[in-house]
Design a protein that fits this description.
Mean pLDDT: 90
CATH topology of the largest domain: Serine Threonine Protein Phosphatase 5, Tetratricopeptide repeat
Distance between the termini: 29 Å
Number of domains: 3
Number of strands: 2
Structural class: mainly alpha
Low-confidence stretches: 1-18
Shape: globular
Radius of gyration: 19 Å
Order of helices and strands: HEEHHHHHHHHHHHHHH
CATH architecture of the largest domain: Alpha Horseshoe
Amino acid sequence: MQRLLLFGLLLIIQQQASAQITFCGSKSYPALSFSTETKEKLEADAENAKSVYLKDITSADALIWYGRRLAYLGKYDEAIAVYTKGIEQHPNDARLYRHRGHRYLTTRCIDKAIADFTKAAALSKGKPDEVEPDGMPNAQNIPTSTLQSNIWYHLGLAYYLKGDFAGAETAYRECLKVSANPDMYVATVNWYYITLRHQKKEKEAAELLQTISKDMKLIENEGYLTILLLYKGEQDAEVLYQQLMGHQNTLNNATLGFGLGNYYLLSGQTEKGKTVLNAVLKGSQWGSFAFMAAEAVLERSK
């Protein structure tokens, strides 16, 4: 699932005091800054998506891609506005709520995200699932998620960020039912497992962890597998700690950093856990789920 923000690996994201973005709540984040080559490609993609959309503004498919391309450029408010317009035209299309909810998550509008994902789940209930095409394809150009898995996955994350672990557990349980490949399964189990641990459901968590093995064939979610193997005792926490602490500026390290920090917290090593999570927040990947989770966990620990 970290591919959802894979564009971050292609960006040069700099903290610029003169260019801040303020989202729901009082926090501000640095505006995105791109390499020339990346910016040109993303802008060209967005212009092409806009052109296709303007040829038929009633097309939900065209509207969704236009919104996605705007979001890749960091134009989250514009993307949300596009999805909102789409919802007015297609109020029963679960995809529009799913994508708007994702960008509400990015902009820390958690309650709005929960409302959108809940609506999307209701609209897609009982319907055949569908593979969701990638805006930023992985190395093998094989999509690893579906509409329904993304709905439940993001809803679970929204509840997790809010500290509603019961709600998160329900969402991840549903997500696991539609996690049809190793990458999606590992990503879901990662969040599902720690959600159970936060609720002291140790037996259920241990049983879930036993479904994970180091020989799982993955395309992109190796970071999640590493953390799950850490919980299984098949990774060395101190070795991972030494590897991570000098490199907090990539999405993958943010993922591993949150996983390791949370591992320390759940293991009773509170100060070390907070040290790692604070290191994650010193990085620039504020749009990643790991960064959001590190924020939420540290806030709850105060």
